[in-house]
Amino acid sequence: MMTSSMVNHGASSSFLDSSSSIHSWNHDVFLNFRGEDVRQKFISHLYHGLVKRKINTYMDRDLERGEEISGALFKAIEESRISIVVLSKSYADSRWCLNELLKILDCKQAMKQIVLPIFYGVKPSEVRDQKGDFGKSFDKLGDQLKDNVKMLKWKAALEEVANLSGSELENRDESEFIQEIIQWVDSRIAYHKHPSVAKYPMGKEISVQIDELSGKKSLMLAAMELTIIWGTGETPQYWDWIPSTKSPVLPKSRFSEVALLRKVWLLDIKGRIETKILSPKTRYGAYFIYSMVDGFYGFNDPVKVSIRLENEVEGGDAINAYLNPRMWSGTQEQRSKKELLQIKRQDGRLPIKRKDMWMEIEMGEFCTGSHVDNHGEVEMCLKEVQVLQEKSGLVVHGIELRPK
C-alpha cells in the first residue's frame, strides 16, 4: 500500500470501518490537478488506472478557464468519497485549482470526505510555506489578482492540505507510484457496499476496518461464513443459529447471527478467504473470536489451531489452544508472569478477553504477497477430534484477520 511513501505532517491517524459514512457518494474519486503540469501523462495514466479498477472517478475534461467554477463541478466534489489533490509546481498559480481546493476542504470538514494530497515534483514544505517554484507560482497569482482576502484563504488551504497524510513522488518510478495510489484508493472504497457488513465478490460476508494512515485492512469472517461440522440449520440439536441482537447475555456483535453449540463430541471449524482482498506485503495474525454461555462444559482439554496457505501441502504445525475462559479471564494489557507460567505449564495458548467482551485465541500468522502475486487462499482451522468429550456452550462469533 502507501506505507513506504506515506508522509505524515502532523495529521492524526483515524480508524475507518465499513459503517463510517452515511453520505450518498456518486463518485469514488474526484481529481484536483493543474492541467498544464500533469494532465497528459500522470493524470491520464492515473485516471485510466482507476477506471480500469472499476473505481468511479470524476475528472474535469474541460481546460481550466476563468475564475468561477460551475455549480455542477462543486456538486461533483460534494458527491465524491475521496478527493486526490495533485500538487505540482504550477498548481498555485491556478485560481481554478485553488477554488476547488477550498471546496474539497469544506467537504472534508462537513462530510468527512477523505483527502489524499500527492506531492508531484514539489515537497510538502514548499506547499505549506509557499516556497521554491511552488511559492513563485503563488506569488505570481497574487501579483495578478491583488486580492489579499482571497490570497489568505488560499494560503490557509495550502497549509492545511500540506499537513495531511499524503504521498510524495520524489525519484520513484511513476507507474509504480500510480499503482500504489490506486491500491490506496481501492482499500478505502472497495468494501463499503453495505453498512457494517461488506459483500465480497466471492460471496464472503465479512466486516471490514481500515486504518486511514497505513491503509492496512482488518477483516472478520462471520460465523455464518465458516465451515462448522454439523453446523447447518438442518442439525439444530448440535448447533443453533441465534440472533445476536436478541441475546441479553452475549456481547454486542457486528453480525446478525452467531453460532451456539448445543452438544457435540468433535469440534471442526474452518474459515477460508482469498488473500487478494487483504493488504499486500503484510504479516497477518488470525484470531478465533468466541464466547461461552453460562453452564458451558467440556473445554478443559486443548483444541488445535492452525493456518494453511493454498500453495502449502500442509499448514504450519498445529498449536494447542485453550478455549475455557476460566484458564485466563484477563485482557491483553493484564497479561503477566503468571500467564507465562500457565502457558509454559499447559503448553498452549490462553484466551484473551477483548474490550468488546468477546474472547479471542490466536490461530497463527501468515504473510501476503506483493500486488502482483497476492493471489490464493488462506485456511484457518480449529479442531478437537481426539478427546471425544461432550461439549456445550461455545458461541462462535467469527475469525478475524489483523495486521501484526
UniProtKB/TrEMBL annotation:
Matching Pfam families: PP2, TIR
InterPro entries named among the record's database cross-references: PP2-like, TIR_dom, Toll_tir_struct_dom_sf
Coiled coil, from the record: none
Keywords: NAD
Domain TIR span(s) in chain numbering: 25-189
Single GO BP term: signal transduction
Statement: the UniProt record of this protein carries the keyword Transferase: no
GO cellular component, one term: nucleus
Record's protein name: Protein PHLOEM PROTEIN 2-LIKE A8-like
Gene field: LOC108990919
